[in-house]
């Protein structure tokens, strides 16, 4: 659960980019953040959901009971690795690595056993079994998204691996992609 309270972000000019934002995000909840350009969406996400990529001027963000505002920078990478999965608009895949290698890197970071084998299983579960050796440049936008998602599922989900893989496939299907196994 993510609890944001009275979050303020001020830049040098003195203007508040965030002016006391509060929100709760419960486990399993899907949240869509909408607002005019410049209203602070990216800053809110970068402080809270992105695991402290930006620091707040004041306020509180607790993730599963842990306060991340003011958390020492050296503690944040492990938190990002273990609690968050980001799929950026450009998918942030490593261009010199194949689809399989991209997912396996994420599995390795998470100390998942047999990272290459499990990366292959994840990719197969979302219908990308024929693309394991393809580089990102040779994949469609939706396929890149699938690779990015497999990497995030692998790095994030708890529980045993079959469960993790099913969860990944389910999330992928929920994207209503043409790639999704039906
Ligand atoms: N480094 C910075 N220094 C000063 N002001 C900044 C900085 N970064 C962002 N801002 C300001 O903070 C406000 C919120 O920016 P933010 O990027 O969160 O907007 P947004 O809601 O994501 O907009 P968009 O829909 O255009 O992506 C904007 O007015 C922006 O100009
Ligand atoms: Mg933005």
Quick structural gist:
By secondary structure, the chain is an alpha+beta fold.
Descriptive report:
This protein has two domains: 2-73, Rossmann fold (3-Layer(aba) Sandwich); 99-174, no CATH class. 37% of the residues lie in helices and 15% in strands. It contains six helices and four strands, in the order E-E-H-E-E-H-H-H-H-H. The protein has helices at residues 41-47, 76-83, 99-109, 115-125, 141-156, 161-174; strands at 2-10, 16-25, 58-63, 66-67. Residues 11, 17, 35, 37-43 line the site of adenosine-5'-triphosphate.
For the largest beta sheet, what order do the strands appear in spatially? 2-1-3-4
Oligomer: single chain
Distance between the termini: 31 Å
The number of distinct structural domains comes to 2
* Beta-strand percent range: 5-15%
Strand segment tally: 4
Order of helices and strands: EEHEEHHHHH
What percent of the residues sit in helical stretches (DSSP H or I)?
Answer: 25-40%
Query: Mean pLDDT score, rounded?
Result: 84
Largest sheet: 4 strands, antiparallel
What ions, cofactors and ligands are bound? adenosine-5'-triphosphate, magnesium ion
Shape: elongated
Unreliable parts: 176-182
Derived structural class? alpha+beta
Q: How many individual helices? A: 6
Radius of gyration using CA atoms only: 18 Å
């Amino acid at each position: 659960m993510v609890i944001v309270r009275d979050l303020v972000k001020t830049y040098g000019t003195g203007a508040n980019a965030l002016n006391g934002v509060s929100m709760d995000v419960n486990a399993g909840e899907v949240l869509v953040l909408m607002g005019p350009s410049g209203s602070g969406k990216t800053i809110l996400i970068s402080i809270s959901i992105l695991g402290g990529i930006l620091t707040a001027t004041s306020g509180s963000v607790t993730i599963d009971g842990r306060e991340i505002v003011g958390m020492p920078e050296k503690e944040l990478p492990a938190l990002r690795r273990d609690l968050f999965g980001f799929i950026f608009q450009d998918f942030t895949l490593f261009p010199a690595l194949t689809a399989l290698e991209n997912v396996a890197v994420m599995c390795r970071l998470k100390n998942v056993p047999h990272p290459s084998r499990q990366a292959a299983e994840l990719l197969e579960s979302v219908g990308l079994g024929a693309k394991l050796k393809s580089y990102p440049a040779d994949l469609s936008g939706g396929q890149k998204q699938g690779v990015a998602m497999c990497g995030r599922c692998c790095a994030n989900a708890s529980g045993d691996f079959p469960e993790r893989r099913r969860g990944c496939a389910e999330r992928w299907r929920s994207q209503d992609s043409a790639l999704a196994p039906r």
